[in-house]
């Protein structure tokens, strides 16, 4: 039996999506979910850190509640985007997520976890 989602998500995962989560974002890469609620996104699969109208993205944060994950993209002064993901599957070596707003069947797979 896999750990609860909030514990299982912590670590470095290979990321693969059927489409870019944010327009123009890559569909493959890696993400590291840290115990402090921050996300390292070296491949910018959650969107680039480029200048937004309200400043550059300086933090990517996540929270887990029940069977969903919320990812917040923040500038120095405010949250500029929130991505809501529903959990379809949570196993020891794979987590499958679906964007809550997407009815077209897109999904994200997190696989090959390294701690």
UniProtKB/TrEMBL annotation:
It comes from the Bacteria. This is Lipocalin-like domain-containing protein. The lineage of its organism: Bacteria, Pseudomonadati, Bacteroidota, Cytophagia, Cytophagales.
């Amino acid at each position: 039996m896999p750990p609860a989602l909030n514990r299982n998500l912590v670590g470095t995962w290979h990321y693969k999506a059927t489409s870019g989560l944010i327009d123009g974002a890559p569909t493959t890469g890696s993400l590291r979910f840290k115990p402090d609620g921050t996300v390292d996104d070296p491949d910018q699969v959650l969107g680039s850190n480029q200048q937004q109208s309200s400043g550059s993205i300086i933090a990517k944060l996540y929270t887990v509640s029940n069977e969903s994950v919320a990812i917040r993209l923040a500038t120095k002064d405010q949250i500029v985007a929130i991505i809501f993901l529903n959990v379809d599957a949570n196993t020891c070596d794979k987590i499958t997520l679906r964007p809550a707003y997407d009815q077209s069947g897109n999904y994200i797979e997190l696989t090959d976890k390294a701690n």
